[in-house]
Amino acid sequence: MGSSLLITLREGLEIALVLAIIVAYLQKTGRGDRLSAVWAGAGLAAAACIVAGLAFHRLVGEFEGKSEQLIEGSLAIAAAAVLTWMIFWMRGHSRGIASTLHSRIDEAIDRSFVALAIVAFVAVAREGFETVLFLLGSETASNSGTEVVVGGAIGLVISAVLGVLFYLGSDRIDLRKFFNVTGLLLILFAAGLAAKSVHEFRELFELEGGWYSEPVWEITSGPLATGWTYDFLKGLFGWSSDPERIRVVTYFAFLIPALRFYYRKPAPSTASPTAIDTAPSPETITVAAETASAGQR
């Protein structure tokens, strides 16, 4: 549940911030009558993400044996790759997103109701489909669909509340620190997914008997082998009570360079001012907060 809560809290807040910027800008420019298009686009995007997630979950659930191992391994590595790319992309391509989003809104309004709805749809759908992918990867790591749903729902509720506070001008929330902390936790989660994928592929190809298949440790009892603590650590960090050597090696081979690059001072952004189909990053929060606050004056 911890991993799915973290995912939806992070991704849900990014969606909420984008919507807050759009809504505040429309209100500020006296075009509040166009808000219905924003909600229509956002609603369609949310529905599309939910349908896609349920369909894929049902499809995966019908596979067993080697087919299941192939799908779970592929899904885990895909989620880890996209999640890591998202974190680092946001660190290097963050400036100018809010202002360019305003330009896209102006262009959409000049065209039609549908164009504005498409802007909102794309903004929400991009993060939404990423969230679906991460949640499916989270389920393969925790083996509990119920926990994934409950944790995901809690994360969305919290992100929605924070989004409303952001829109109302509550810039006392230290969003930069929030994104830094969740970014670190998501890297740990991605490392667990990468290790999980190697485990699934090893079982798929029946690679047994080598040095890589021997367990590094074996814990048979206690909170690290069973119970809530074990489930939490397994779902969020990819913990295993009897991990094979190749799994542990993969975990740290992914984690160490990722952390090194994450804490390295980011290079100056070279992003194109038209690359606005992403949620705002911590560096954009100050500009966005001023926009949201101005919309309330």
What class would the helix/strand composition place it in?
mainly alpha
Count of individual domains: 1
Beta-strand residue fraction: under 5%
Low-pLDDT windows of residues = 271-297
Q: Secondary-structure element sequence?
A: HHHHHHHHHH
Shape: elongated
> What proportion of the residues is helical, as a percent range?
over 70%
* Tally of contiguous helical segments: 10
Report the average pLDDT across residues.
Answer: 78
DSSP strand count:
0
The largest β sheet comes out as: none
Gyration radius over CA = 21 Å
Determine the N-to-C terminus distance.
40 Å
Give structural notes.
With 297 residues, this protein is an all-alpha fold. It has one domain (2-294). The chain is 74% helix and 0% strand. It has 10 helices and no strands. It is elongated and about 70 Å long. Mean pLDDT is 78; it is low at 271-297.
Quick overview:
The protein is built from 10 helices and no strands.
What is the topological layout?
Blueprint: H1 2-28, H2 35-61, H3 65-92, H4 97-111, H5 113-142, H6 145-167, H7 175-204, H8 227-237, H9 245-262, H10 285-294
Helix pairs in contact: 1-4, 1-5, 1-6, 1-7, 1-10, 2-5, 3-5, 3-7, 4-5, 5-6, 5-8, 7-8, 7-9
Keywords, separated by commas or semicolons:
297 residues; mainly alpha
